Amino acid sequence: MQHYSPYEITGGDPAKGLVLVADHAMNRLPPEYGRLGLPESAFERHIAYDIGIEPLTRQLSAALDAPAVLGCFSRLLIDPNRGEDDPTLIMKISDGAIVPGNHPISDEEWQNRIRRFHRPYHEAVSETIARSAAAGGRAPLVISLHSFTPFWKGVARPWHASVLWDNDPRAVFPLIERLEAAGDIVVGNNEPYDGALRGDTMYRHCMAPGIAHALIEVRQDLIADAAGAAAWAERLTPILAALNGLPELHAYHRHPSRTGAYSD
Fold it and tell me: Which InterPro entries match (predicted)?
């Protein structure tokens, strides 16, 4: 079986104290999975990946000289932004599309995907955060990047971007304030999704250890082409640089999660 890396870590100076994470950056599958029984067109949809996030993350990583961890497998194979015990970790139906390669699925194959893809990806995130903390001598700021569809069930979504979070406001409030300062976009606060999800990437790597963080969602139609991704990279670069300059975002402080008590 040909080696398939479930993640990519871009270049960047870990001492800068900023780490970018893109769980759903790519729509790839290892060759042995074919297309999971789906038509090729399914892999151009949001059910397979976060449209526009790979180029946006790469440009931000370069502009900010910050390492980024990108997921290199489609969320249809296994969703890295879910805990290992989440029943939606491997979706049998996604936005109306039945995924034949996921249904039925054996317990052995379920665990195989965790072992080969999900777990190594999260180990890469942990190691990248740890390298940044060691190099900078302080807690890093972590920014997670995602995108959302412009419509859901036929209803237009008015937000250009949103910030999702659980219960740690340190990076969230200054981020929303700076996003809104230009006055030309509508910014959502925990819309169209709630950022409190037990076991997801930000819960695991930031909430539990007390690292300041925020999850930015950009509407997909705004970053679906090269010009859009470049424009949003230009918009976000000075904002994230300013956030990274705030000393209070580089201290460890564990906030209680809205999802309940931590397991430790």
Answer: N-FG_amidohydro, UCP029730
* CA 85 to chain CA mean position, Å: 19
Beta carbons within 10 angstroms of residue 139's beta carbon: 21
- Going from the N-terminus, what domains does the chain have, and what CATH number goes with each? 7-250 (3.40.630.40)
Contact between 25 and 72 under an 8 Å Cβ cutoff? The reply is: yes
- Average pLDDT over all residues of the chain: 97
Locate all alpha helices (DSSP H) within the chain, ordered by sequence. 53-64, 107-113, 119-136, 172-181, 201-202, 220-223, 226-244
What are the angstrom distances between the C-alpha of 205 and each of 12, 94, 128, 186, 259? Answer: 19, 26, 11, 28, 15
Tell me how far CA of residue 9 lies from CA of 68, 79, 129, 142, in angstroms: 6, 18, 11, 14
Q: What residues contact 253, with CB distance under 8 A and at least 6 apart?
A: 168, 170, 210, 212
Q: What is the pLDDT of residues 66-100, one digit of tens each?
A: 999 999 999 999 999 999 999 999 999 988 889 99
Structure tokens at 115: 């072992």
Q: For residues 47 and 27, what is the distance between their CA atoms, to the nearest angstrom?
A: 9
Residue 17's identity, in one-letter code, is: G
User: What is the residue-wise DSSP string for 137-206?
Assistant: TSPPEEEEEEEE-SEETTEEP--SEEEE-SS--TTHHHHHHHHHHTSSS-EEES-SS-S--TTSHHIIII
- Pair 157, 187: CB distance under 8 Å: no
Tokens read off for 80: 């890295």
Instruction: Find how far residue 171's CA is from the centre of its chain.
Output: 16
pLDDT digits (tens, 9 = 90+) for 211-241: 999 999 999 999 999 999 999 999 999 999 9
**Residue 1: which pLDDT band, with cuts at 50, 70 and 90?**
very low
What pTM did the predictor assign?
A: 0.97
